[in-house]
Design brief:
Elements: H1 18-24, H2 27-68, H3 83-97, H4 105-125, H5 131-163, H6 168-222
Helix pairs in contact: 1-6, 2-5, 2-6, 3-4, 3-6, 4-6, 5-6
Length: 241
């Protein structure tokens, strides 16, 4: 008697690579995946830009602190766009006006400090742009991915009901496609949350350091007597030194 053989064809192996999962996904799930991928790209663009911005602001804050601690102030008003230049452009005109006859030393120093702090805050304001995108992506992306997963699983169950076949080979591809949307949502959300927390804390620290240096610079300016125009032969802080 000849041996029994199984002549049934082997089940076709499903391609579960990321590209295949995307191509086989439902149009709605594909839209969710594309939206999450675009959000992830945008977040990484913001992250790279903020790393460069944070490095620059830390250097400018150190320069401002050096200016407040005794470094020679330029003889002409700078036209740069850094923190120290912004503080000087706002403070030197107030220093030229001098202390009013009825103005106390504290009021005079407060006027200088207020003008320079306002300029420094205005310069720092643009550095926080893009953080809203990181916060929004970190909060929303997992739920958007979950929506894609729920939609894909619903389609998979509909296909199972139509084919009356509940074997794992039939169920697995559809569920894998659906879960891939959640995975993309997490890939977009996790770096966004980490980056937002890191940049929010770092920018707050730079802001605090810059404003502290600005107050010291205002105190240094307020101790200088006989205000004269910058660049007219007398250095503005020579009298205080």
């Amino acid at each position: 008697m000849p041996p029994l053989t199984n002549d049934l064809p082997a089940p076709a192996a499903h391609d579960l690579s990321p590209l295949a999962l995307f191509l086989m996904a439902d149009p709605v799930v594909k839209g969710v995946m594309l939206a999450l991928l675009l959000a992830s790209i945008a977040c990484w663009t913001v992250i790279i830009e903020k790393l460069a911005t944070l490095r620059r602001l830390r250097r400018e804050a150190r320069d401002l602190a050096a200016l407040a601690s005794g470094e020679r102030i330029p003889a002409t008003l700078p036209d740069r766009a850094d923190l120290g230049a912004a503080a000087l452009r706002a403070g030197i005109p107030e220093w030229r006006i001098g202390q009013g006859g009825k103005e106390t030393d504290g009021e005079y120093r407060g006027r200088l400090d207020g003008a320079m702090r306002k300029a420094v805050v205005g310069t720092l304001k643009s550095s926080s742009s893009g953080l809203q995108l990181l916060a929004t992506t970190g909060a929303v992306a997992p739920f958007v991915g979950l929506f894609g997963t729920v939609w894909g699983i619903m389609n998979s169950f509909s296909g199972i009901a139509a084919s009356n076949d509940t074997s794992l080979a039939v169920v697995a591809p559809g569920i894998a496609e659906a879960l891939f949307a959640t995975a993309i949502g997490l890939v977009a959300a996790i770096p966004a949350v980490v980056a937002y927390n890191r940049f929010a804390v770092s920018l707050a620290a730079v802001r605090q350091d810059a404003l502290g240096a600005t107050t010291e610079l205002a105190h240094r300016l307020s101790r200088a007597s006989f205000p004269t125009a910058v660049g007219e032969g007398r250095h503005p802080l020579r009298a205080a030194e």
